Amino acid sequence: LQYCASEGHLGLRKHIIEFLKAENIAVHDDDILITVGAQQALDLIGKIFIDKNDTILTESPSYVGALNAFLGYGAKIETVPLDNNGLQVNKLKEKLKTLKKKPKFLYSVPNFHNPAGVTMSKKRRHDLIELAEKEDLLIIEDNAYSMLGFNPDDKFPALRSLSEDVIYLGTFSKIFFAPGARLGWVVAPKAVLEKLLLAKQAADLCTGTLSQVITEEYLNLKPWRPRVKQMTKIYENKKDVMLGALEKYFPKDTSWTKPKGGFYIWVKLPYFVDTTQMLAEAINEKVAFVPGNNFYPDDDGKNFIRLSYCLPEAKEIEQGIKRLGQVVKSRIELYRSFKKYR
Predict the structure, then answer these.
(1) Taking every annotated instance into account, which residue ranges of this chain make up the domain Aminotransferase class I/classII large (predicted)?
(2) pLDDT, tens digit, 9 for 90 and up, residues 184-239
(3) What 3-state class would DSSP assign to 317?
(4) What are phi and psi of 97, to 5 degrees?
(5) Confidence of residue 116 (pLDDT cuts 50, 70, 90)
(6) Are 294 and 64 in contact, with CB atoms under 8 Å apart?
(7) What's residue 2's pLDDT?
(8) Phi then psi for 239, rounded to 5 degrees?
């Protein structure tokens, strides 16, 4: 096997065109750059856009891999809060008025957010595109979980489908459940894609040909829609088990999101619980989570945890949440006992 084109193996790019059609995104093969996972795409975006102390915008919380990629190039990250309907566009509008420097871009995970599990409403998507056009704000749309919605009647338009100025990131890791293949892609305006291609060539010349050809052949032989439907149903069942276990085993003064797709549930604990400190105790009980402060560029989110239901079996989820609930309860009881006798 030889090197392939820096843009990526043509046969695989043609499959990506078909995936994007499902989201009403029309592209040609020369609009696509295949990367070593979507994580490399984030790094390349940081490389071509960010100079030290440049301002960028992310949601709060945001994907830790994106934060690390952007911080690695010296970005100053300003955040915009989420609620159950995703990015609060009105808060973004207010934030833009207060910034002294124009932000290089806004990074957003509109579908089945990592880590928050929420999804941006249709109205907010249209409002966001309208605001971005008015303010000349570039949007990076990370749509790793796009096809993993639990209700097929829910239609959430991709931001890229609403504006060709949006830079769109996708991945095979989540859709086809093969993260080890390390294959992602970028769709971007021509001028941006040219810069990304130069950065890609400087980084590694091209994404590995072998993994691309194997993935192409798999997609030639196996219809992808039934596979996505099958796996999404499995994830939905696991999500229901985890939500039921949280209701059953977690104390009343906790709360959590109820995802419409994807892999994650975002749990809020009382303000005095430091989940980084709590992690060691949880691991002793053979259960793990990701502490919330990892998903913020500052020291926020200490009382949040991200839970994932994609890998464990239903029985393991039930038992794990039961154990974790006991750890949370003991932390709360310890704090209240200490406060009582101070």
Answers:
(1) 2-324
(2) 999 999 999 999 999 999 999 999 999 999 999 989 998 888 989 999 999 999 99
(3) helix
(4) -70, -25
(5) very high
(6) yes
(7) 86
(8) -60, -45
- Pairwise CA distance, residues 204 & 207, whole Å: 7
| Residues in the chain, total | 342
- Packing angle, helices 37-49 and 64-71, rounded to 10: 30
Instruction: Name the fold adopted by 225-340.
Output: Aspartate Aminotransferase, domain 1 (3.90.1150)
* b (16+ CB within 10 A) / e for 190-206: eebbeebbebbeeeeeb
Exposure of 121 in the CB half-sphere (CA atoms within 13 A): 9
- Tokens representing residue 65 in the block: 């891999």
What are the sequence ranges of the domains in the chain? 10-222, 225-340
Long-range contact pairs involving 223-232 (C-beta distance under 8 Å, separation at least 24): 224/19, 224/175, 224/176, 227/176, 228/147, 228/148, 228/175, 231/148, 231/177, 232/147, 232/148, 232/149, 232/150, 232/261
Q: How far apart are CA 328 and CA 267, in angstroms?
A: 11
> How many beta carbons lie within 10 A of that of residue 218, not counting itself?
16
Hunting for tokens 């590694």 — which residue is that? 204
CATH 3.40.50.2000 fits 10-222, yes or no: no
CA angle 237, 242, 243 (to 5 degrees): 95
Given this model, what pLDDT does residue 176 score? 66
Coil/strand/helix, residue 1: coil
Alpha helices, H only, 50-156: 64-71, 89-98, 122-135
Distance in angstroms (rounded) separating the CA atoms of residues 278 and 269: 11
- What is the average pLDDT across 161-166? 98
User: With bands split at pLDDT 50, 70 and 90, how would you rate the model's confidence at 177?
Assistant: low
Contact 13, 27 (CB under 8 A): no
The one-letter amino acid at 21 = K
Phi, psi torsion values for 115, nearest 5 degrees: -105, -5
